[in-house]
C-alpha cells in the first residue's frame, strides 16, 4: 500500500486534518510529560501546539519535517520512555497494525497516552471503497477498521479508552456537514480514540477474587483461649 506523505495528497485531506485538529484540541491540554511521539507523516502535520509536552518528535521512514527517520514498526526508543504517542491515520497504511500498537505500547510509560485516528468503514468513505476503480487510489487503498475492532485491540493491551468519536459525515464538506455530524455521528468518515496505558488489569480475575475471599488458615500451634466470664 502506498501511504501518503501529506494530507494534501488526499482528496479533501486538509478538511480531514482540520477536523482532527478540532476534535483533538480539548484533549491536548490534558496530556503531560516530557516526550510526545508523532508516528507517521500525517501525524507530523497535526497541530499539537496546545499540548503541554514541549519535546515533540516526528518519526517516519520518509518525508519532512522528520526528526527521526525510522520504521514505525521498529521504534528506536527504549521501553517506557515516551509519555504520549499520536497515530493519526498511520494504521490504515500499515502492513501490520497490531505490531504497530504493540510497539507504541512498548515505548509508552505507565499511564501514557495513545491517540489514534482512522477512517470509518461504515461511512460514505467506506462505500466509495467498494468501487473497484477507486481501490488503487488514495485514500481508498487504505485499510479501514471498525471502532469495535480497534477497541478490542486496545483492550487486549490493557488500554483504558477515555474518548471515542466519529465525525465528518460528508467528506467533501469543510465542516463535514454540521447537521449530519450532529445527528448521525456514527456515519462520520473519521474516527478518533484517546486511550491511556494501564498497569492494573481493568477486568478482575474471578479466580483471584475467590482466593481473596477464602478463609485464612489457622496457624500451626495456635490455640483458642477461653476467658471465664466475670462473676455476677
UniProtKB/TrEMBL annotation:
BP terms from Gene Ontology: methylation
Disordered: region residues: 213-232
Domain Methyltransferase type as annotated: residue spans: 67-116
Signal peptide: none
Matching InterPro entries: Methyltransf_11 (IPR013216), SAM-dependent_MTases_sf (IPR029063)
Enzyme class: transferase
Keywords: Methyltransferase, Transferase
EC number: 2.1.1.-
Protein name per UniProt: SAM-dependent methyltransferase
Entries under Pfam families matching the protein: Methyltransf_11
Gene3D superfamilies: Vaccinia Virus protein VP39
Molecular function in Gene Ontology: S-adenosylmethionine-dependent methyltransferase activity
Amino acid at each position: 500500500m502506498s501511504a501518503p506523505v501529506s494530507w494534501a495528497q488526499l482528496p479533501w485531506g486538509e478538511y480531514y486534518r482540520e477536523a482532527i485538529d478540532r476534535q483533538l484540541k480539548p484533549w491536548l491540554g490534558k496530556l503531560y510529560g516530557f516526550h510526545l511521539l508523532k508516528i507517521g507523516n500525517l501525524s507530523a502535520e497535526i497541530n499539537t501546539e496546545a499540548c503541554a509536552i514541549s519535546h515533540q518528535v516526528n518519526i517516519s521512514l520518509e518525508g519532512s519535517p522528520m526528526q527521526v527517520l525510522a520504521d514505525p514498526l521498529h521504534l528506536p526508543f527504549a521501553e517506557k520512555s515516551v509519555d504520549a504517542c499520536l497515530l493519526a491515520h498511520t494504521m490504515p497504511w500499515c502492513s501490520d497494525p497490531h505490531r504497530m500498537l504493540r510497539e507504541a505500547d512498548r515505548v509508552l510509560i505507565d499511564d501514557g497516552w495513545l491517540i489514534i485516528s482512522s477512517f470509518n468503514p461504515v461511512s460514505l468513505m467506506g462505500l466509495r471503497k467498494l468501487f473497484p476503480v477507486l481501490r488503487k487510489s488514495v485514500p481508498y487503498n487504505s485499510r479501514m477498521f471498525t471502532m469495535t475492532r480497534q477497541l478490542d485491540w486496545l483492550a487486549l493491551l490493557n488500554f483504558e479508552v477515555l474518548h471515542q468519536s466519529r465525525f465528518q459525515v460528508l467528506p467533501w464538506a469543510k465542516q463535514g456537514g454540521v447537521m449530519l455530524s450532529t445527528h448521525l455521528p456514527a456515519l462520520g468518515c473519521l474516527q478518533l480514540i484517546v486511550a491511556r496505558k494501564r498497569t492494573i488489569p481493568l477486568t478482575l480475575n474471578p479466580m483471584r477474587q475467590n482466593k481473596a475471599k477464602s478463609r485464612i488458615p489457622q496457624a500451626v500451634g495456635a490455640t483458642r483461649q477461653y476467658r471465664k466470664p466475670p462473676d455476677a
